[in-house]
Amino acid sequence: MGPFSTFGVMSWGSTTAIVAAGQGIGFAIPINLAKDIVSQLKEKGHVTRGWLGVGIQKVTPGLAESFGLKEQKGALVSQVFEDGPAEKAGIQQGDVILEFDGNEIESPADLPRIVAEISPGETVPVQVFRDGETLTVTVTIGEVEEEAEDKAGEEPSEKPIGMTVQNLTPRIAEALGLDDETGVVVTRVKTGSAAAEAGIQRGDVILEVNQNSVADVQAFSEAIDEAMDQKNILFLVRRGKRNLYVSIKPE
User: Fold this and answer.
1) Of 23, 139, 164, 249, whose CB count within 10 A is highest?
2) pTM of structure
3) What does the pLDDT read at residue 96?
4) What is the total count of domains within the chain?
5) pLDDT tens digits along 172-218
6) Are residues 93 and 160 located together in one domain of the fold?
7) How far are the Cα atoms of 36, 155, 184 from residue 180, in angstroms, in the given order?
8) Domain presence at residue 99
9) Backbone φ, ψ for residue 198 (5° rounding)
10) Structural domain of residue 69, as residue ranges?
């Protein structure tokens, strides 16, 4: 799994291709899931799939430390889609999903398989880690829709973490495909710097520093100054259409 995954459209999880002598290529899926698929095809003519409405990513050692997790496990919620099942249930960006419907989530790869086996409309408990506490919310699983599948003039700011940022202008926001001008855009990443090692890229938009919104270069600069004595600085980054968390160790 890459740095983050999106559950706007849920897949059936891992399918294993099987090639045998004299036979075609088939796919191995859990027998209960296979029976459910056949039943849905007979009754509806198509397969309905569960939708949670979040973007998730792996919990790295740095992110675990930043969020106060004792263990490096779970699925970190980097994005919550508007009006989706997760948002309606109260799941928040920055939550770490530890259990879903009684199933422990060791890594983000566990979540697609579990959600896929739950029928849309079914209500299930979800255990999340938030602000140092574990709590349980109730989510009503949604259904994937077919269509879903198929300040200008500001001086740039460079900090000792190794990246230069500047305010988003309407032209830059349009070029990056952004709907608004919230955050600051990364214009340069110094080779070999802490930012480069953490995976920050030119064109990334920094939305938050240590879970505090940054509206412009001044807010970004102040947030970095306050965080320089910490072991890790947590950034929420907008890259293309997706959000992801990045943890950077100050130089």
Assistant:
1) 139
2) 0.59
3) 96
4) 2
5) 777 677 777 788 988 888 888 899 999 999 889 999 999 999 988 88
6) no
7) 42, 20, 11
8) yes
9) -80, -10
10) 49-147
